[in-house]
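Annotated sample (chain length 163).
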Amino acid sequence: MTDRRARPIAVFDLDNTLADTGHRQRFLERKPRDWDGFFAAAPDDPPIPEGVALALESAEECEIVYLTGRPERCRRDTLDWLTAQGLPDGRVHMRRNDDRRPARRTKLEILRRLARTREVRMLVDDDELVCEDAELAGFRVVRARWAAPSAALESAQEGEGRT
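Output written by the structure step:
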């Protein structure tokens, strides 16, 4: 049952929604993909102004929740990055280190769990498949189209369940 007295939540993806991963795409373009290098470079991601502004604006009415496909082993770097960018405090949901399911499955599972007790005001994400599935499930979606798309990242999100 949804608690109508609690503030609604706004759910934000990280990679290519709040954090510009362009400088680390090179790690995904080689075979085999260098996942350790890709995630090790995440603390150097520049913030994406459109995403940061939307998160700050949303925090005026909503509790912010971060929902990322990054593995749990990246938690410390991720929390430090969020703080360094001045982003609102919020729970951070990450995938288990051994979870290789597509992002659209893992994220929708968490969205549904969140919606059992709270109003999910919106999901902000750059992954079209995540956005499509969330909309089909009845969630309001804001497509983060402010970063350059990456075919390597899209393949990794859907085919390899890595981010």
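Annotation: Strands lie at 9-12, 63-71, 90-95, 120-125, 141-143.
Annotation: The first helix runs from residue 35 to 40.
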